[in-house]
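[Discussion] Sanity-checking designs against the backbone

I'm trying to build intuition for which residues belong where. Below is a structure token string of 366 positions. I'd appreciate it if someone posts a full sequence so I can compare it with mine line by line.
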């Protein structure tokens, strides 16, 4: 199913929860709705489901307007955060329930339910009740029940938030596998950026009801369209420094840096005297000897994270986050130099936060 969101607005008491959202979700894609709490991602999902009716704009499924189509007629399957299984029914009965409501012949319904149970790998649990299942197993039952109707669109509302870290990792891989095997268009809400980056074909990133960027995960990470996205995506968080561009020397002057950074960027990207927010990811900074590199400072924090360690360095008014191999010979309190990889810089207008030097296809909504 191909989904078009055209100037979609949803307001509550004249306050827009979603504000003129435009996006196209291609058939067979897995799209993550991502953003901070209250950004409008769940409201968007509920509009796709028909639980909310937009106060403006139009939603189209395969070219047909569905604004006023009731949920039961939208050919959707939905999985909620709390699974919503019937505790007095067995796994098989839970999966069969939507088919029973459709009054499908019993033999056909049983065959389809068992096939779906095998697809989600719970075929051996059909006689158990939800209370006898783990969280991951209950999630699989909920997915099987949503898919047994053979919907054209699968909607997932933070489906993994109730699971522990290990199960979340396992289930997000399973959701991707199931989605690919069936080829169903899938939209899922998540606040977990790692989840979105790892399994989505495209991420629709929102803030305060507005679309910030809609693109492939790697594109959002590598070319964030504005400073908010750069700060929101990535762990540890991106470093943001203050600077300005010198059009005469074609170099970037960074506050606190020992020398300007040469930048091969066209002058028309900048205004005279324009203030710049410079972003650089922790993995694009490296530790050097004191007095070397672009910045210098004192190590204030070291956290072991498997093969890497996460480091914070206090450098003047800035706190610089870095990632280094865990066997790096450093200690808290050491004075170090920091080298910034100039080819990996992200530049944003200090006032508007908009990315500078965008190439075609990098802007929000593309």
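Best answer:
Here's mine. Compare freely.
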């Amino acid at each position: 199913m191909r989904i078009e969101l055209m100037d979609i607005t949803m307001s509550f008491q004249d306050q827009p929860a979603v504000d003129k959202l435009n996006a196209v979700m291609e058939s067979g894609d897995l799209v993550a709705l991502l953003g901070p709490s209250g950004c409008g991602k769940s409201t968007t999902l509920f509009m796709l489901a028909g639980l909310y009716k937009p106060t403006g704009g139009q939603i189209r499924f395969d070219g047909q307007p569905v604004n006023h189509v009731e949920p039961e007629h939208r050919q959707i399957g939905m999985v909620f955060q709390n699974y919503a299984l019937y505790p007095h029914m067995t796994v098989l009965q839970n999966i069969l329930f939507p088919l029973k409501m459709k009054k499908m012949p019993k033999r056909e319904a049983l065959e389809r339910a068992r096939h779906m149970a095998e697809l989600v790998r719970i075929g051996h649990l059909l006689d158990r009740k939800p209370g006898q299942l783990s969280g991951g197993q209950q999630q699989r039952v909920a997915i099987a029940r949503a898919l047994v109707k053979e919907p054209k669109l699968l909607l997932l509302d933070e489906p993994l938030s109730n699971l522990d870290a290990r199960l979340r990792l396992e289930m997000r891989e399973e959701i991707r596998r199931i989605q690919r095997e069936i080829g169903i268009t899938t939209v899922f809400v998540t606040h977990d950026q790692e989840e979105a980056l790892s399994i989505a074909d495209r991420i629709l990133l929102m803030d305060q009801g507005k679309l910030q960027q809609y693109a492939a995960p790697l594109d959002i990470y590598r070319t964030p369209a504005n400073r908010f996205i750069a700060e929101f995506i990535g762990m540890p968080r991106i470093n943001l420094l203050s600077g300005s561009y010198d059009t005469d020397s074609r170099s970037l002057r960074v506050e606190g840096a020992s020398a300007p950074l040469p930048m091969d960027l066209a002058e028309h990207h900048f205004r005279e005297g324009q203030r710049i927010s410079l972003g650089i990811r922790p993995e694009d900074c490296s530790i050097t000897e004191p007095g070397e590199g672009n910045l210098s400072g004192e190590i204030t924090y070291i956290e072991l994270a498997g093969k890497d360690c996460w480091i914070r360095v206090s450098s003047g008014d800035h706190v610089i986050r870095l990632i280094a191999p865990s066997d790096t010979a450093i200690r808290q309190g050491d004075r170090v130099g920091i080298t910034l990889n100039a080819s990996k810089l992200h530049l944003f207008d200090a006032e508007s936060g908009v990315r500078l030097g965008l190439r075609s296809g990098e802007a929000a909504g593309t």
